[in-house]
Amino acid sequence: MRSDIIKKGFERAPHRSLLRATGLKDEDFDKPFIGVANSYIDIIPGHFFLQEYGRIVKEAIREAGGVPFEFNTIGVDDGIAMGHDGMLYSLPSREIIADSIETVMNAHKLDALICIPNCDKIVPGMVMGSLRVNVPTIFVSGGPMKAGHLKDGTPIDLSTAFEAVGEHAEGKITDEQLYEIECEACPSGGSCSGMFTANSMNTLCEAMGIALPGNGTVLAMTEERLEMVRTAAKRIVEMAIAEGPNIRDILNEKAINNAFVVDMAMGGSTNTVLHMMAIAKEAEVDFDLHKINELSDKVANIAKISPSLSTVHMEDINKAGGVNAVMKEISKRGDVLKLDALTVTGETLGERIKDAQIKDTSIIHTIDNPYSQVGGLSILYGNLAKEGAVVKSAGIDEHMRKFSGPAVCFDSQPEAIAGIMGDKVKAGDVVVIRYEGPKGGPGMQEMLAPTSLIMGMGLGDKVALITDGRFSGATRGASIGHVSPEAAEGGIIGLLKDGDIIELDVDAHILRVDLSDEELEKRKKEWKPKKKEIPGKWLKRYSLLVSNAANGAVLKTEC
Fold first, then answer.
1. Are residues 288 and 329 in contact, defined by beta-carbon separation less than 8 angstroms?
2. What is the spatial order of strands in the sheet that 137-139 belongs to?
3. Burial class (CB in 10 A: 0-12, 13-18, 19+), 335
4. N or C: which end of the chain has fewer CB within 10 A?
């Protein structure tokens, strides 16, 4: 076993002495040592209960013949960090999480790993770190929260609360109505109830085969979820004893393909593109952004979940057959899913989903009656996004899929929020928010506050927004993010002026500004990057090392 390097031989007597201080006995030194990476943190609704999950995991590991060693990672709640400079730390936290997994696992030579994440950057951060370690690994997330409900029975969620701010600012709802939404939108522990980034990533862990069925849809803090936690803990001991398969045996090119296919079929968050590109790099899989559009042409969008469809939440997908039912239905379109891909249970993906079926075709549609014949994400290119930009096409009104209008430019998210609330944005405009990319932000802030304001003010089907930043999974509408190159590295988005006509065509994958090459070259010569005051030493280091969104916003490790 890998852990023999810290526990076998006379020269390791000091090491064993230290381990005995933690409670180990003679018989434990012949058992596999299992890392339990827990992302418990009190301030995140999807994580405050994960201490209990950790306790259950450790008990099950001991019962199965392993020795658990629990450690923690940090976590940032995007909703709480939203709309102020706390969001600068959100995406960078992914790198700290990945580094912490690599550090603890490799410093102590643990044999296997079980990861207990739940929200946004925490899932991909743990995946990235585990790929560096490359031991047997299972992911078991905390699970989604239930949808909230108003007194009249209307289902609501976090995106309702954000959009209600814009509605309140416009006088469309009262203080009392806003308070009711505030109190009911997030009714329990779990990752926010729609197909936001957390649930998108937990769903993709199923698609990649690194988690058990139901990982993305079974509600948090239920007996069904706790049984999944126990099963995952027992399975990781089996994998440790067998010394495989390792995570790289499972998370490979086929798994990356399957993740994007499911993402397309379910209209996942645009953040998944950013995270999956980073995961692909850690897995040493060459995955070009152009491939996403190629997959999109082959994958029908058969599930719409909040924010794309406000009445449907993760619990509804679970009741309708879960991710397995989605994959089984999509597999009917030919060789789009790689069914021979291995999963952590030892079966292939095809074997896992062979008996799956849709239980409610009003929630998960069939491929004969899809929401769209193409997938729910699109990568746009053009002179404004030479390296690409991302849009959640599943969340766009049909008449906004092809749109043009004059630019209204803002050089930061706070400036944009003030401008939108100050009526600087009118129907037909294209809002441009720049210098919010990985390097320019730094940290690539999510833009849920401005997009929610636009929706709440009744402009969601009349205004487009483009940014070199990113969006919360709760964002909907014609919101185009990850514009690369970003403004801070000299991208065209940094050269735009108010009134420039911007053209968007989702189906043709086009994002461009109606300016000649000569005019753009002239502006490029006159351009000087805007310098922000960067708070915190970590963010300063991050801005020096981070790549752009087209490259997954990963940190450079070579000059």
1. no
2. 67-72, 33-38, 112-116, 137-139
3. exposed
4. C
User: 392-438: per-residue pLDDT in tens?
Assistant: 888 888 889 999 999 999 999 999 999 999 999 999 999 999 999 99
Reference 465, options 164, 454, 166, 411; nearest CA is 454
Return the residue matching tokens 């030919």.
334
Which pTM does this prediction carry? 0.94
Tokens linked to 42: 């009190």
Positions in the chain whose pLDDT score sits under 70: 473-474, 559
Could you give the dihedral angle defined by the CA atoms of residues 18, 24, 25 and 30, in that order, rounded to the nearest 10 degrees?
Answer: -100
Beta strands at 378-382 and 385-391: parallel, antiparallel or unpaired: antiparallel
pLDDT digits (tens, 9 = 90+) for 535-553: 889 999 999 999 999 999 9
Q: Is the link from the previous residue into 307 a cis peptide, with omega within 30 of 0? A: yes
Q: What is the DSSP string of 285-349?
A: ----THHHHHHHTT--B-B--TTSSTT--HHHHHHTTHHHHHHHHHGGGSTTS-TT-B-TTSSBH
* Nearest-angstrom CA–CA distance, 266 and 268: 6
**N residues, the chain:** 559
User: Cα(514)–Cα(384) distance, rounded to whole angstroms?
Assistant: 10
Instruction: Give the whole-angstrom CA distance, residue 415 versus residue 445.
Output: 13
- The CA-atom distances, in angstroms, between 467 and each of 489, 497, 501 are 14, 14, 15
Q: Which residues have a catalytic role annotated?
A: 472
The strand ranges marked E within 80-215 are 112-116, 137-139, 148-149, 155-156
**Which residues contact residue 59 at a Cβ distance below 8 angstroms, ignoring those fewer than 6 apart?**
233
Count other C-beta atoms under 10 Å from residue 173's C-beta. Answer: 18
> d(Cα 352, Cα 346) in Å, to the nearest integer?
10
